Amino acid sequence: MTDHAPSSLAGRLVARRVRYYYALIGLIAVMFAAESVMHFTYYTWSRWIVTGTALVATGLAVGSGLRAADLGLSRDTWARGARWAGVIIVAVIVVIGVALAIPPLRELFRNEAFQDLPWALWSAFVLIPALTVIPEELLFRGVVTGALLRRHSPRVAIALQAALFGLWHIESSLGLTTGNEGVGDVVGTGSTGAVLGVLGAVAFTGGSGVVFGWLRVKTGSLLPCLALHWAANGVGAVAAALAWQLA
């Protein structure tokens, strides 16, 4: 009995680790399926499917043993995270403001989805946080990063979640060159331009994922990631409307 105990324990540990990775892969598959449903259907409810997936995934992660600290939500990190978040938002606003003042750069902000300023403001302060920023940060820098950090080094966890984050944006960038005049002028609006637009978006968001992941590990908090993500998308939406008005 004693001779078999260590091997039996090792077998249980291996089985537990296999189940862990199966669960993580299953979560990632569900995430990407939800993203596809949101982008390729036109129902009102489907716009909220990623948000719902993020909330359910966070609840299941907590139920499976991940702690608030694993998700970047520990109270101990709130003050530090808030300081980083404030600096990040101010820095992004300054950078975008400078870019808007330069006509060639201003053209890159002219996204057709945000030609109307009231709609851009509604999107920036309601829709973008609820449908994009909060759910994506909960999924990628919360659940996925927290789960990966349980089994891997910070460097590996950051790299893996960043790669997934880049791939996550394939579908949302399919119409990038036709919906953004500035980007379309740079890479073209034909099939080659569309491919370059997608590749560029994946590379850019993957690189952004590295920055988000580094912030998450550096501060231990999700707040700086939320701040940077919102500033890039929300302030970017308002900047797009201003760019159209200044054109």
Characterize the structure shown.
The protein is an all-alpha fold. It has one domain (69-246). Helix content is 78%, strand content 0%. It contains ten helices and no strands. It has helices at 5-40, 49-64, 78-100, 103-106, 117-151, 154-168, 176-179, 181-187, 191-219, 223-246. Helix 3 runs parallel beside helix 10, helix 5 (117-151) runs antiparallel to helix 10 (223-246) and helix 6 runs antiparallel to helix 9 (191-219). The longest helix has 36 residues, at 5-40. The N and C termini lie far apart (80 Å). The model has no long low-confidence stretch (mean pLDDT 89). One of its GO terms (biological process) is CAAX-box protein maturation. Residues 119-234 form the CAAX prenyl protease 2/Lysostaphin resistance protein A-like domain. The chain crosses the membrane at residues 20-42, 48-69, 81-102, 122-144, 156-174, 194-215, 222-244. One of its GO terms (molecular function) is endopeptidase activity. This is CAAX prenyl protease 2/Lysostaphin resistance protein A-like domain-containing protein.
Q: In DSSP terms, counting alpha (H) and pi (I) runs of 4 or more, how many helices?
A: 10
Global geometry: globular
Can you tell me the residue ranges where pLDDT is under 50 for at least 5 consecutive residues?
none
Radius of gyration over alpha carbons? 20 Å
The portion of residues assigned to helices is: over 70%
Strand content: under 5%
Mean pLDDT: 89
Class derived from helix and strand content: mainly alpha
Please provide the ordered H/E string of secondary-structure elements.
Answer: HHHHHHHHHH
State the assembly state of the protein chains: single chain
Number of strands: 0
Quickly count the domains: 1
Largest sheet composition: none
**C-alpha termini separation:** 80 Å
GO molecular function: endopeptidase activity
Organism: Gordonia spumicola
Pfam families: Rce1-like (PF02517)
Transmembrane segments: 20-42, 48-69, 81-102, 122-144, 156-174, 194-215, 222-244
